[in-house]
Task: structure prediction
Amino acid sequence: MPIRLHDTRRREKVDFTTLEPGKVSMYVCGVTVYDRCHLGHARCYLAFDLIHRWLESSGYDVHYVQNFTDIDDKIIQRANELDGDWKALVEQNIQTYYEDMDALNILRADDYPRCTEYVEDMVRITQDLIDKGHAYVADDGVYFDVESAP
Result:
């Protein structure tokens, strides 16, 4: 039985297809590890766990990636509140995340990249978006210019 998904660009339901037959790459935005997980995180990752399991049981080879946002204003603020090291806070909350998801029997992703591993890439891509007129700088950050989207 095929799965149908809502295509936000086309604004309609479409049959699920893969770029490469039999293989699915799945990226799910992960947690910002400034604190322990909450029920909303569990709901999100349970939903994607069901999709992951359905795809595998349907014969797909799934490569599942979920990031950790391991540097952020919230992380620094929380570490300062606790008079602690932000890196230690991150490691503690990542370990707790794994324990919580394991307790819920949620399958682990194949890879868990961390934002700190890609800061230079993020800066370069952000600058490219600004240079091409797809983003703009404001007092509190850089924003995507939605009117520039096709």
User: Anything to note?
Assistant: The CA atoms of residues 36 and 95 lie 10 Å apart.
